[in-house]
Amino acid sequence: MKKVLFKLFLYLIPLLAFQVQGLARHIIGGEVKYVCLGTNPTNDSVHFQITFKMYRDSRSGGANFDNTANFGIFTKESANVWDFYRRVQTQVEQINEIPPNNNDPCIIVPPNVGVEEGIYQFEVWLPILTKDYMIAYQRCCRNPTISNLINPGNQGAAFTIIISPLAQRSCNDSPDFISFPPVVLCVNEPLVFDHSTKDKENDQVVYEFCSPLSSGGQQNGNGCQSVIPSPAVCLPPFKAVNFLLPGFSFSAPMGGNPIISIDPVTGFITGTPQITGQFVVGVCIKEYRNGVLLSSTQRDFQFNVQQCSRVVTPLVDTDFTDRDTFLFKSCDPGEIKFNNISLGGTYINSYDWEFYLPDGTTNLTSKNVSLDFKNRGVFYGKLTLNKKMGCRDSAFIKVNIFPELRAGFDFKYDTCIAGPVQFIDNSVADAGKVEKWLWKIEDKLAEAVSDPVILLEKTGLTEVFLEITDGNACKDTLVKSINWLPVPALLILEPDVREICVPGAITFSNLSKPIDETYKINWKFSNGDSSTFFTPQVYFDKPGNYDVYLEIVSPLGCRTEKNFVKAISVYPKPQSGFSFSPETPDVFNNDIQLLNQSVESTTSSWFLDDRLVSLQYQPLLTIKDTGVHLLRQISFNQYGCSDTSDMNVDITPLVTLFMPTAFTPNRDGLNDLYGPVGYFIGMKKYSMMVSNKWGQKIFESNDTGEGWNGNHHGIESPAGVYIYQLQYTEPRGQTFNVKGFFNLLR
């Protein structure tokens, strides 16, 4: 009967595997434990309750838990040799959703992370043997998104527990894990997890990282590469999973340096995850009594390491951070403001600040706080959000009040010679040494070295600014005034002109540097003048070459002098003069001959009414316009000195007028009109009237160009004697009245 059942079991396994093969790729861990329920009266059999917990990724869309699970029970025949004892089938009794943030309920878990727990239980009577039992569950496949395995979606899992002969005889219970590992870990944040167990008999339990076991694959059937391997076919020992080398191994399942570790005595897993991803971790536990191994099992689980977002996140406004520590730096004792920029909004119920100072702990509860640090040194603090209720999180504060930095400098220079000033830095830096220097002389940048040599630009009080910076980027400044009063190393004379014509004045400027109004200036000139002004003006009225002597005395009594030989040349002037001919020109005689009468000149320029008209020595000018005109002569000598003479010339305007004694208006084109003949330009107020011998007016005109044609009202006047009357004013205002007789001839 047993053989028939066994054959039927082997026949059913492939069908079962075929039915569930499409449900693979879901496993993220599992564990097995047992509880002894007692022995039979003859004490040759023991009754165990087996509990298996399997964990699956509930967000991947993979397989659900098997409704019916097949467990294999094996006996150890020799080293690494196991024999199939029996198979047990049981159904899933309970499915639980494990909170992915069970280690920290304030972490915001991504929607693609979810873990379900399926619980299977069965009871079994086992003969008490002198060899080990192994209870195992085999299934494929693991979550394909696992980061530390090669081809994780094609690797299955085997979950086992070993019951020793001593455990059978003593009716021992296996250790029970206290809590499930955290599903979500935060990258670069410390992990401290208690992975210990509780043991009813208080036996010794030893913990270590070990390799998770692999079994099954993606094939159909009941072989060891099938989705659900047959326990009767696939016997222990099971192979280890294939870690992705070289970065990962069973002892370094999450990589990194340093690696995550487990304490073999306490079971605490500690370290800081440094890589994001999903990592399979195996933890083996062995139970000893008086040095004898009672049981051994392993828990296989998955850590999800990610960049965490939290419901509340403590943040303090600062430019410097070191992981979860906010750094504040100050170069001087005094008040520091801590601006709270924590994230969480309405989820934040309270703020608790603690500052650990030399005279005790200071506690503050405002959102933003200020604290007066009276001494230099390093001080620590802590900000806790929701200390008494709600999602709690803390951040650390480090305040560094740096050692004192004091700027200082001295200087030295020659008090009489205008040379550079040597500046000497004597600053004090308690933190070490000064690293940077910034010098300013009257707001102008100077050389950025510790001891610059600078030539100042002006005398008297000069403001010198020094800013120093140490290795902590702390700065200190000092301003000093230096009273620099040397005499110039070089005397420089700058007259506004060096050559003039007599008489003339020259303004002298002293461009020697450095000097200011506190210095004494003494000038002496070889024409006999002297001055103490900074910028004197000197008058020269005689030709010649003149020396200039300059002396400068500083406020400290230092003296320098120089005599500038023949610094100034003064030249004589020519004497201009001229006449012209004719002396009384008029409109009919307007060619003017200019006669040059200048003395000691070489050239002359001639101007008519301020317009240059000739450069000849004695030019002939024709002046067409009547009236008074200005003639100007500018004469030059060989030194470029000049003299000017002006004279007025009057071109007299003239009018000539002649009245004929007869005319013949016979239309032959000759002498047909009667009127004045002559030069009329400039004439004013002209009028002519013709009357007969009886005094009757027969013609009148105001136009010199209009004459009488011998008609009166369109009728020819008879030949005979007629009377004319003229009135006009000549150009310069003289008025004439003329009357006479003429004959009309026909």
What would you say this structure looks like, in words?
- It is a single chain.
- This protein is mostly beta strands and 746 residues long.
- The chain folds into six domains: 2-306, no CATH class; 312-401, Immunoglobulin-like (Sandwich); 405-484, Immunoglobulins (Immunoglobulin-like, Sandwich); 493-571, Sandwich (Immunoglobulin-like), CATH 2.60.40.10; 578-651, Sandwich (Immunoglobulin-like); 656-744, Sandwich (Immunoglobulin-like).
- Helix content is 3%, strand content 50%.
- Strand 24 (351-357) and strand 25 (360-364) form a beta hairpin.
- It is elongated and about 195 Å long.
What are the salient characteristics of this protein?
Immunoglobulin-like; elongated; 2 helices; eleven-stranded mixed beta sheet; disordered N terminus; six-stranded mixed beta sheet; mainly beta
What secondary-structure arrangement, pairings included, does this model have?
Blueprint: H1 2-20, E1 27-39, E2 45-57, E3 68-78, E4 81-98, E5 107-108, E6 115-127, E7 133-139, E8 157-163, H2 165-169, E9 176-177, E10 184-186, E11 191-194, E12 197-198, E13 204-209, E14 213-214, E15 239-240, E16 261-262, E17 268-271, E18 277-289, E19 292-306, E20 309-310, E21 320-322, E22 325-330, E23 334-338, E24 351-357, E25 360-364, E26 369-373, E27 377-385, E28 393-401, E29 405-406, E30 409-412, E31 421-425, E32 428-429, E33 434-441, E34 444-445, E35 453-454, E36 460-470, E37 475-484, E38 493-495, E39 499-501, E40 504-510, E41 520-525, E42 530-531, E43 537-540, E44 544-553, E45 559-571, E46 578-581, E47 591-596, E48 603-608, E49 611-614, E50 620-622, E51 627-636, E52 642-651, E53 656-658, E54 662-663, E55 677-679, E56 684-691, E57 697-701, E58 711-712, E59 715-716, E60 720-729, E61 735-744
Parallel strand pairs: 10-19, 22-28, 39-45, 54-61
Antiparallel strand pairs: 1-2, 2-6, 3-4, 3-7, 4-6, 5-20, 7-8, 8-19, 9-12, 11-17, 13-18, 14-15, 16-17, 18-19, 21-22, 23-26, 24-25, 24-27, 27-28, 29-32, 30-31, 31-35, 33-34, 33-36, 36-37, 38-40, 40-43, 41-42, 41-44, 44-45, 46-47, 47-50, 48-49, 48-51, 51-52, 53-55, 56-57, 56-60, 58-59, 60-61
